[in-house]
Design goal:
Elements: H1 2-30, H2 35-60, H3 64-89, E1 92-95, H4 96-117, E2 121-122, H5 124-151, H6 163-194, H7 199-224, H8 228-253, E3 256-257, H9 263-281, E4 287-290, H10 292-310
Antiparallel strand pairs: 1-4, 2-3
């Protein structure tokens, strides 16, 4: 039955990812904000729900390695696996807005997380700081986008769905992402435990992979529908949500101990974030691209990380 739920969870994730993209694009037209902002806000929150549920459940059950490792592994997978896979399918454009604003915020969040856990714990105060910073990020993203689009006289396409229907589809797709990820993670964890894998290895690899599948499904559907602003925005935005939102909420609920064995994984997360910047900077201009060749390089890096984890 574990393998049945593994496949069923993946199918539900794909369908939910498609609905999330459609509702996100419709809402961007209604509220006159770019699909890039929708990608780093609403869509990112929806695809981060599995990580949130897993981390909260883990800390309440006394499993801190899973609560933190899930976020670290998911951030690694989002860049190296999800973006790499999407770029293999189709060149992913990277606009200056992502280069100048979204990536620096993601890197700042990652470094701040590292500084906070040097003492071996993520406590209530750090969680509150994360939530405040998340609110500021969302406010500034939306305000900046609306101001820029007004200045250039951006013409918005007619929304495919009404606001109520778009919100309903958003809720349905988010619930589908949660349900699909839950089935997939539970079945994958059950399989892994039978193989005698440690809590830390399970969290940064199998569970992180499972909770990153919503991002993979959403980015895949966005690439198919040519909504690549959502694809890159969703990936960067999800990493910001994972640190500021998920770890913020989880550490407010209960202080999270962070063992020294997780620091190597944090270094991998920081290094892969820097690698993303280098790939974004390679073709300078108004819009650069994460190409198929770079996508393959990212996938190879992810494979190397998994080999490192299971070594």
């Amino acid at each position: 039955m574990d393998y049945f739920y593994l496949i069923l969870g993946f199918i539900i994730l794909l369908i939910s990812g498609d609905l999330l993209v459609k509702s996100g694009v419709a809402l961007s037209s209604h509220f006159r904000v770019s699909t890039l902002v929708i990608g780093v806000t609403i869509v990112s929150f929806g695809t981060s729900l599995p990580e949130l549920v897993v981390s909260i459940g883990a800390i309440l059950k006394g499993l801190p390695d899973i609560a933190v490792g899930n976020v670290i592994g998911s951030n690694i997978a989002n860049i190296a696996l999800v973006l790499g896979f999407t770029a293999v399918l189709m060149d992913v454009p990277v606009k200056k807005a992502s280069l100048r604003f979204d990536w620096p915020i993601m890197m700042f969040a990652s470094l701040l997380f590292y500084l906070f856990v040097i003492n071996g714990r993520l406590a209530l105060f750090e969680g509150i700081v994360f939530i405040v910073l998340l609110g500021g990020f969302l406010y500034w993203s939306i305000r900046k986008s609306r101001r820029e689009l007004t200045l250039i006289g951006h013409a918005f396409a007619k929304a495919r769905y009404s606001v109520p229907l778009s919100v309903l589809l958003l809720l349905i797709s988010s619930a589908g992402l949660y349900l699909g990820a839950s089935w997939l993670v539970e079945s994958a964890e059950s399989i892994a435990i039978r193989l005698g894998v440690s809590e830390r290895v399970i969290s940064v690899s199998i569970i992180a992979f499972g909770t990153s599948l919503p991002e993979l499904a959403t980015s895949f559907m966005a690439a198919v529908k040519k909504q690549l602003d959502i694809s890159i925005g969703n990936i960067i935005g999800s990493n910001i949500f994972n640190i500021f939102g998920i770890l913020g909420i989880t550490s407010i609920i209960k202080s999270i101990p962070v063992g020294p064995h997780l620091f190597l994984d944090i270094y991998w997360m920081l290094a892969i974030s820097v690698l993303l910047l280098l790939l974004m900077l390679l073709p300078l201009g108004l819009a650069s691209y994460i190409t198929r060749r770079e996508g393959i390089a990212l996938l190879i890096v992810y494979i190397l990380y998994i080999v490192f984890v299971f070594r």
